Amino acid sequence: MASESEITNGPKHVAIIMDGNGRWAQARGRPRLFGHHAGAKRVKQNVRACKGLGVKYLTIFAFSTENWKRTQSEVSGLMSLFRQYIRREARGLRDEGVRVRFIGDRVKLDDKLIALMDELELMTAQNDEVHLTIALNYGGRDEVARATKRLAQDVAAGLLKPQDVDEETLPKYLDTYVLPDPDLVIRTSGEARISNFLLWQSAYAEYEFVDTLWPDFSPEEFGKIVKSYGRRDRRFGAVLA
Ligand code: FPP
Predict the structure, then answer these.
(1) What's the CA-to-centroid distance between 35 and ligand 1, angstroms?
(2) 88-139: per-residue pLDDT in tens?
(3) How many angstroms does the Cα of residue 205 sit away from the middle of ligand 1?
(4) Whose CA is nearest to atom 15 of ligand 1?
(5) What tens digit of pLDDT does each residue of 30-89 get?
(6) Which ligand 1 atom lies nearest to the CA of residue 32?
(7) Mean pLDDT lowest for which of 12-26, 43-57, 147-161, 224-238?
(8) What is the pTM (predicted TM-score) of this model?
(9) 18 and 61 in contact (C-beta within 8 Å)?
(10) Distance 62 CA to ligand 1 centre (A)
(11) What is the SS3 assignment for 140?
(12) Of 9, 19, 142, 175, which residue is the catalytic one?
């Protein structure tokens, strides 16, 4: 696997759309949840790989605002997997220096899960090795709408003037306000869509769509993509001399 010293100009913030758990399970004649459990193991390995790859921020799409439309048994299975993941991994994440944050709208999540999320955020709040952000009940449009609502409330309360609202102001109201924008967005499973993920934040991100299904996405493949990013010519719309 790539070592940090080999990676120059690597992405500091990588966001991943972890897709393909269902197809991975189906190919093995197993229920979809079997694929999600295998996906959770890959989350663990790939989070661990970040430090060696020089990836300081990793943001993963675990559950979208659209995912509620899945069957009730898949949704409750996923919610129980998230609870399990937090319970099982909390200490390891804390001890490995990972700071965990959650983004997305919490209102639809159950109280037990919210309490675990709060606890994990709190117990890793002093960490700074790797910043893991888990998007749960997250949708980019929903996030912008919620941000705009809060911004409008501040305008109504006289805390902000309409003429002061600009590209610097709005992101302060987004769930990701403490994070840098992603440099690289990876989507697994061969679909070339961004599916409402980090819409505002990914304006200048590079995209990498790979055919691998998420439960097969190894730290080695992750490392190769991170290394190839360093070789890209990124100009942010400018022509560099
Ligand atoms: C998409 O695959 C995946 C999800 C909607 C869930 C992502 C969840 C995990 C990777 C599990 C663990 C996550 C954490 C943070 C513990 P899909 O079901 O849409 O696959 P398909 O397109 O093949 O049906």
Answers:
(1) 8
(2) 999 999 999 999 999 999 999 999 999 999 999 999 999 999 999 999 999 9
(3) 22
(4) 62
(5) 999 999 999 999 999 999 999 999 999 999 999 999 999 999 999 999 999 999 999 999
(6) 18
(7) 224-238
(8) 0.94
(9) yes
(10) 6
(11) helix
(12) 19
What is the 191 CA–ligand 1 centroid distance (Å)? 13
Q: State yes or no: is 233 an active-site residue.
A: no
91, with CB counted inside 10 A (0-12, 13-18, 19+), is exposed
d(CA 20, CA 214): 5
Q: Answer positive or negative: Cα dihedral of 161, 166, 169, 170.
A: positive
CA 165 to the chain's CA centroid? 27
In 3D space, the residue among 218, 216, 210 whose CA is nearest the CA of residue 192 turns out to be 210
Cβ 217 under 6 angstroms from ligand 1 = no
The pair of structure tokens assigned to 146 is 């919620």
Contact 98 CB / ligand 1 (< 6 Å):
no
Mark whether 19 is an active-site residue: yes
Q: Whose CA is closest to atom 7 on ligand 1? A: 62
Exposed, middle or buried, 237 (CB in 10 Å: 0-12/13-18/19+)? exposed
